[in-house]
Write a structure and sequence with these properties.
Layout: E1 14-19, H1 23-34, E2 39-45, H2 48-58, E3 62-65, H3 74-85, E4 90-94, H4 98-108, E5 112-115, H5 120-131, H6 139-151, H7 166-176, H8 181-188, H9 192-205, H10 211-226
Parallel strand pairs: 1-2, 1-3, 3-4, 4-5
Length: 229
Amino acid sequence: MATRAQFSPLTKKHKVLLVDDHPVVRQGLALLVGREPDLLVCGEADGARSAFQAIETLQPDIVVLDISLAGPDGLDVLKEIRMRSGNLPVLILSMHDESIYAERALRAGANGYIMKQEATEKVLIAIRKILKGDVYLSERLTSAMLNQFVHGSDTIKSSPIVSLTDRELEIFRLIGEGHSTRQIADELHLSVKTIESHQAHIKEKLALRNARELVQHAIEWTVSFGGSH
């Protein structure tokens, strides 16, 4: 990791766009990134629409994106970024368990995944590594993925939750956060019937017998593994 002393006053500042729906989180990230001589927070966004507007007008060099956003979640935003902005680097920074979300994020086009519980200096390491064209993952997840590749072991996919599609996982998380079917439909701009169909698939995949078990399981998983947004 390069220290501040290694950067000259003429060092190019890379523009960083922060996308998170919590102002306190954005403020903390802005303070962290803004004190670095080679990095500049060019803007902030709290959701999909403002994120796309900021990308278009500010032309950031990298986007730091949370998964849990009001409306379309971070994975949906990431997929749209890939469609609109091609190779724009994106670092996912989230409370959500990397064993569940990191591989999904990479498949969706992320250049790295880091949990908010990590030390702050690792966020800077991740940003700089991605700006150099590399992929950033935690040492634990990198080791698990390598082990899976070399030995064929399934150490990452140890939970039946990973069988859910991205949309099903998003709905499962929202159920765990206390949202009703109608609220989920409104937030995701889908019909109640579509949400109910997804819920039926979730129950089938997780071997849950009824809606009560679905809600209970979703709450327990969100508290234990899904993180808090």
